[in-house]
Structures are given as C-alpha cells and as structure tokens.
C-alpha cells in the first residue's frame, strides 16, 4: 500500500482544503448576520422603523439626508393638502365656492420643488395657513378620516411657522413624520456593537423607569443576566438638546452589547403593486418584522379605496403565516400607530368595521387586545396548516432541508408607536433580548 501521491494530487487536495475553509468562513460570516425582513401593508410604518434604527445606532442623519428630508417636508405639506381636498366631495364638502381658498389651493399645487439650500418660499406660508384654518378643511379632517389622509398632516400643519424659519433643519421627530412610499427593496445594515442606542430620548424619567423595571436597578449588568447585552448605561446627566417640539430635556442612553452583531434590515414597499417583489427577499430570514397600522381599522388603503387597511393587513399576515418559507422564522408583530388608535377609538366605533368586536365602546385597551387576538389566531391557523402538510408527506423547506419539529417558530406581538424613538428603543431591546438571542444563540453568535 503506497502512501505516495503525485504532486498534482497533493496540489488538488490543498486547493480543496482551501476552498472548504473559505466556504466555512463565508458560512460563519453569513451566520453572524441576522436578516430582519420588514413586511406589511403600505403606510404601516416599516420605513419609519428603519429611520428609528438609524437614530438608535448612528444617533443622527447626515447633512445631505437632512436636506432631502427638509425638501420632503415641503412636498408632504402639498400632498397632504391635496389628499384632503380630493376627499372633500366624498363627504359633500367643497372649497370651490370660496375663490380665495381655491386660488390658494391651486397656487400651492403648482409650487415648484424646494431646491438645495433654498428656504421654503415666503409667499406660500400665508396660503398654507389660510387653507389649514379654513372651516371646510377643518370639517373635512374629521369627516375624511376613512380615506387615509396622510397621518403627518396635523403634525406638519401645526408647525408651519417653525418650518418657515430661514435656518430650519428637520428635527428627528420631523424626519420620522415625513412620508415617502417605498418602491423596491432597501437593505440597510446596522452594526450593533458597543452602543446600540446612543440617542436623544425625549423623556428620560420614563426611560429610566422602564429600564429599571425591566432589568433591575444596577446600571451595569453582566452578559450572563441579560444574554448578549453587557450593560445599559443611562447618561441622564448628559442633557443634550431641547427638541423644538417638546419642552422636555433629552438624555442620552447607551445599550452595550457583549459582542458585535450585524443586523440587516430589509425594507420593502407595502402597496399592492410592490408586493410581487417581496419573494426576492425570502431567503435566510432570521425574523420577520410585520407591521400593522392599528389605526387603519376604519380606513381604506391609499391605493385601493374599496379595501379596509386592517382587513388587508390580516390577509397579508395570513399569507405570510402559511408560507413554508417561514416555517421556522420568528415572527415579530408590531401593532403600530397606537397613538393614533387611542386618539380615534372613542369617536370611531370598532364594531362598525369589525362587527364581531364586542368590547366596550371607545375602550382602547379592549380594542388592542381584540386585534392582537385576531392576529395571533391567524398565526395559529397558519402553523396548523403547515403542520398538517408536514404530516401528510415529506414536505421540504424551500431550501430543500427536511423540517425539524424541534424548533417551532415564535410570535412576538408588540404595541408600538413608530414615531416615538424611546418607545421603539424599548421594543428593540425586547427583540434583542428575546428573538435575536434565540436565533443568534443557534448560530453561536451570543
Ligand atoms: N402618528 C404616527 N404616525 C406613524 C406611526 N408609524 C408611522 N407613522 C407615519 O405613517 C406614515 C407612513 O409610514 P412609513 O414608514 O412610510 O410606511 P411604510 O410601511 O414604509 O409604507 P410603504 O413604504 O408604502 O410600504 C409616515 O408619515 C409615518 O410618520 C405611528 O406609530 N404613529
Ligand atoms: Mg416604506
């Protein structure tokens, strides 16, 4: 038996070993990344969560981004007023018999885009104000709710004077309130290392309470007590700025992780025409972050007036829950726009749109629970269907591996207000603490 090998064979073996090593390295690298896929109907708040992640990781936006958002604010003022005026006829209202208002409306519709560095044009401020204060518009806001008027209209219109200041630059709150529908797929990678959250928190005392409740009084907790998180550092003394919208001081927070992790967030467009692109992102998903607009229970879709936003979200969710792709994928459910939901639920009875709702009229908590239960029930049905498929034959996952019954997927529901940075931070801590810990533990990252 000879152990001799030709030089060629030795070379080939060495090359194979190198290739194997590279593949192993690439796989390890891939496993170090958690891919979070954001899904949900249009306008549910997916991109807003991406913006919050930017704030929670980087703490700010670049000069160029601030300029783009500034221009978007001006555009949002126009599209918001247009959406409102377009709906007036549906509720038997019109501004057509008021020539001053009509002229103002036509002028703002024809306004040229704001260019780089150019302040909002002076002559337009009184026109926007005139329209916003017009009795027909005010009445329209209340009556047109079901037509999905952009949620940021009351916010931006109540800050007109501030927006027209020559040195105006959008605050973080302005940025998360801006609206531009997503077209295509946008991937953003967030490095979560020493400081996950290093951001201005509007209400430091509220944060401190929440963190204390959650993790106890000690400032620095070891990785063994909160796996993956080495410390939470409150810097309440580090008061940084006053937000122009809030008189409360802001404090900085840092959440420290014991290891560096990469979170790849994939944001997609949620409007109907965008959904056929989603399938391109279904591979290797660590967790789905599914957003639902809670306040959409009495509203139609922007792109399809005959469809209720909440019903559309339920149908989408059902489709996702039944997909074999996501058989073992954690599902994070954000029942979002809780702030708007609370504000409207007393005036707009849930039962009018969901007749099986039998909670008390105007009770936000009962309403939240009702919708959460419906989404959880839909997920259970989806899981059941997948299990039946599994039993009925040797179904394979899309990656062609047999299912492992050892790991059943989990659903993590949260009520969220995506425009509120500190509330989003809380939820993100939860996600890091539970979902990602479970998933990343499997990949030896934590
Ligand atoms: N008040 C309030 N507004 C919110 C909340 N979440 C999102 N918004 C606003 O809702 C609008 C739509 O949010 P986006 O994040 O652009 O929605 P999207 O899901 O990315 O929409 P598509 O890109 O069309 O799929 C923006 O103006 C946000 O500021 C919330 O919790 N409360
Ligand atoms: Mg979007």
From TrEMBL:
Mg(2+) binds at residues 47, 182. GO terms for cellular component: cytoplasm; heterotrimeric G-protein complex. GTP binds at residues 267-271, 336-339. GO terms for biological process: G protein-coupled receptor signaling pathway; pheromone-dependent signal transduction involved in conjugation with cellular fusion. GO terms for molecular function: G protein-coupled receptor binding; G-protein beta/gamma-subunit complex binding; GTP binding; GTPase activity; metal ion binding. Keywords: GTP-binding, Magnesium, Metal-binding, Nucleotide-binding, Transducer. PROSITE patterns: G_ALPHA. The keyword Cell membrane does not apply. InterPro entries: Gprotein_alpha_su, GproteinA_insert, P-loop_NTPase. The keyword Nucleotide-binding applies. This is Guanine nucleotide binding protein, alpha subunit. It comes from Serendipita vermifera MAFF 305830.
């Amino acid at each position: 038996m000879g152990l001799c090998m030709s030089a060629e064979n030795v070379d080939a073996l060495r090359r194979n070993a190198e290739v194997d090593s590279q593949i192993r390295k690439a796989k390890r690298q891939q496993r170090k990344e958690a891919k979070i896929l954001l899904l949900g109907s249009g306008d549910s708040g997916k991109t807003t969560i991406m913006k919050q992640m930017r704030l929670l990781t980087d703490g700010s936006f670049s000069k160029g981004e601030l300029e783009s958002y500034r221009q978007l604010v001006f555009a949002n003022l126009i599209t918001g007023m247009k959406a409102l005026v377009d709906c007036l006829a549906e509720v038997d209202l019109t501004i057509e018999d008021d020539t001053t208002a009509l002229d103002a409306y036509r002028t703002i519709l024809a306004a040229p885009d704001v260019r780089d560095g150019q302040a909002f044009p002076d002559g337009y401020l009184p026109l926007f104000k005139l329209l916003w204060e017009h009795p027909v518009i005010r009445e329209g806001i209340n009556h047109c709710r079901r037509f999905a008027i952009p949620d940021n209209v009351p916010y931006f219109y109540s800050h007109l004077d501030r927006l027209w200041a020559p040195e105006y630059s959008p605050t973080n709150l302005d940025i998360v309130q801006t609206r531009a529908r997503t077209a295509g797929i946008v991937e953003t990678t967030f490095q979560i290392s020493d400081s996950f959250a290093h951001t201005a928190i509007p209400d430091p005392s509220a944060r401190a309470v929440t963190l204390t409740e959650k993790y106890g009084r000690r400032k620095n907790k070891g990785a063994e007590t909160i796996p993956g998180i080495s410390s939470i550092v409150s810097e309440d003394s580090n008061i940084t700025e006053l937000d122009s919208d809030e008189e409360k001081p802001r404090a900085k927070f840092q959440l420290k992780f014991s290891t560096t992790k990469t979170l790849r967030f994939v944001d997609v467009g949620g409007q109907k025409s965008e959904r056929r692109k989603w399938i391109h992102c279904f591979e290797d998903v660590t967790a789905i972050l599914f957003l639902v607009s809670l306040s959409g229970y009495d509203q139609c879709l922007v792109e399809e007036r005959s469809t209720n936003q909440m019903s559309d979200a339920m149908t989408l969710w059902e489709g996702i829950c039944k997909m074999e792709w996501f058989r073992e994928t954690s599902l994070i459910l954000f029942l979002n726009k809780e702030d708007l939901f609370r504000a409207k639920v007393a005036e707009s009875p849930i039962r009018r749109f969901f007749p099986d709702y039998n909670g008390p009229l105007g009770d936000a908590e009962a309403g939240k629970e009702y919708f959460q239960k419906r989404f959880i029930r839909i997920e259970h049905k989806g899981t059941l269907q997948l299990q039946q498929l599994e039993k009925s034959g040797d179904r394979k996952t899309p990656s062609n591996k047999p299912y492992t019954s050892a790991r059943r997927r989990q659903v993590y529901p949260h009520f969220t207000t995506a425009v509120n940075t500190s509330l989003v931070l809380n939820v993100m801590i939860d996600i890091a603490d539970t979902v990602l810990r479970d998933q990343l533990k499997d990949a030896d990252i934590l």
